[in-house]
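Task: fold both queries, return tokens.
Query 1:
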Amino acid sequence: MQRIETRAEAGARPLLCLVTDRRASRRPLVEAVAAAVAGGVDWVQIREKDLEGEALLALAGAVAAAARRAAPRVRVLVNRRIDVALAAALDGVHLGFDGAPPAVARRLLGAGKLVGLSTHGPDEVTAAAEPALSYLQLAPIFAPLSKPTGRAPLGLAALGGARESALPVLAQGGIAAANAGACVEAGAAGVAVTGAILAAADPAEAAAALRRALDAAAPAARTACR
């Protein structure tokens, strides 16, 4: 199984994950992703729920190619679609309530790939002790910037349990440079964002601002874990 360092481990920097939504992007998505990766994004999670089949596969291939040109070590995942992850040679898949079971995804993708899962409350984080998983996302911490949601914001306190989780937990929902550091200090291994980068006039600078905020919070987060 692909193992991800947690923010508590010495030298581990907080993860910055860009979750795509081409309808929320001020620039063509492939261009925006490349700029964001150059600015400091570690992972790109392709989340385009209205696309299926060849259209999703083509977009995934284009996004992955652009991201890897910008930074060869970037990891590119796709939501739900294990078949697309395999066909486009992506780095993994992110699952939700409508996705395959983690064990199935792990068996199909193999030990070297990432398998993530969305959660929406501290109890779900605690319950997701699935050995097939690489990481979790917890949302919404704040009111999302890129879309409306029927769920009430959880707040920073919901990230407290992330410190005890066997899996790294990425905070998602309403994350911007102003609050990203607070998420890491509260227990998150990093953040997953959409609007803070894609809705920005300059995705590279927006990503760089988030990167600076996360890195500045990392020493405090490691101290809090001792």
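Query 1 returned. Query 2:
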Amino acid sequence: MKTATTSAATKTKTDTRITDALNQVLADSYALMALTHLAHWNIEGPDFFELHKAFQKQYEELFEAVDEIAERVRALDAFAIGGLNKLARTAGMEEFTSPMPQKDYIAALVVAHEKVLDDATQTRHLAGESDDLQTQDLMVRRLLFHQKTLWMLKSALKQ
């Protein structure tokens, strides 16, 4: 007779490819949050008010996302990476040189969002291959955010 509880000895370990991929998206998202916050602080120009508000909304959404991603890593019985140096090295994103013209902040954020989008897409595929529907769902939600934000940023670059 099987019991409803599973002992730690019989528990199957989560595929480390998934938790590694989640940690990559975590690092990407954290770096993007910091870059977006920097743009929020330092943006200047004719669209200041609009971009200042948009960037705030984006970095606040990213702050919630990093917590959700890290908690998913923990739910899969792994550890979330952390520390500014480790997150920055793992993300591998270029830092902004401030100040920059408005269009340069936007263009740089486009590049950063595209990196997160690529890594989240890979993570979604891995989760699908492993039948990890919860991680797959999380990545679908992240992809929707980054796709919408990319559309908005790219639209702001059009003249």
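Both queries returned. Flag for query 2: The domain at 16-157 is CATH 1.20.1260.10 (Ferritin).
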